[in-house]
Amino acid sequence: MLVTCSRCDTTFSLPDELFKPGRKVRCSNCRYVFPLYVQPVAQVGPADLPPLSAGARPDPAPQVRSGTAKNAALSLAAAALLVLLGYGGYLLYGVLFSAPGNAPDQASPVPDAARADYERRIKSIALEDIRQFHVDNANAGRMLVIQGMAANRSEVNKDYIAVEAALLNADNKVLDKAEQLCGVPLTLFQLQTLKPAELKEAQNSRVTILTNNTDIPPGGKTPFVVIFPSPPKDVRTFEVRVIEARDSPARRQGG
User: Fold this and answer.
1) What is the per-residue pLDDT across 106-124, written as a single tens digit (0 to 9) for each?
2) In the chain, which end has fewer C-beta atoms inside a 10 angstrom radius, N or C?
């Protein structure tokens, strides 16, 4: 997975198994520490319910949180993993750490070809039929829901398409954001009746995601639903962006 420093725009590669949204990484190019998320490049956001409307904006610089040294064994294991994956060289980017007091190790920058490949995969996905609406949930109160379809516009099958939705105020400041793997449709009845924990479990159902969000053929589509259980009161716009789309293995495409 490619990760871009939100301050200096240097792009690095990180093994998928080490990626977890919200954890902290440090860019040694500029020494900036920021929450881990993949910089999106495709964006869309038509709205159908006033006062919300979709808009596009660059991400603001995330808040910085400091940390202290982490367990040396974990650092060595992370570094060894990066070397085995071919990233080698002088470590420039932070391995994940999830709690205050944990300092990151680092990984080397991604070649231009790898970044270009990532951008190609992201741009091959089109977001369609996007709408947002409020739902009164029996357990969580009023929720804001953004749903739509992710369409494969490439010539190869796709796996694990993911989107990020952001809520913005009248000044285009991000108030809240959430990432979600596509492939899990939710009915209005589910949105109205399931408890927050049940909704989260449904959204991350491995079986449903594997069924609906892998091996998507050219022209195929997969649904997405992003839920904000307690949306800020001053939300005025929203945006939705593709943040991941992998090429399916060649064996599933006749290669």
Assistant:
1) 545 557 788 888 899 999 9
2) C
Give the alpha-carbon dihedral of 141, 142, 148, 150, to 10 degrees.
-60
Distance CA 184, CA 148 (A): 11
Question: Residue 91 is encoded by which pair of tokens?
Answer: 């470590």
Q: What gap in Å lies between CA 86 and CA 182, rounded to an integer?
A: 30
Buried b (16+ CB within 10 A) or exposed e, 211-226: ebbbebeeeebbbbbb
Query: For the residues 121-147, what does the mean pLDDT come to?
Result: 94
| CA-closest candidate to residue 50, choices 206, 245, 237, 188 | 237
- Domains contained in the chain, CATH given: 125-252 (2.60.40)
The three-state DSSP-derived secondary structure of 109-165 is ECCHHHHHHHHHHHHCEEEEEEEEEEEEECCCEEEEEEEEEEEECCCCCEEEEEEEE
CA separation for the pair 66, 169 (Å, rounded): 28
pTM of the model: 0.59
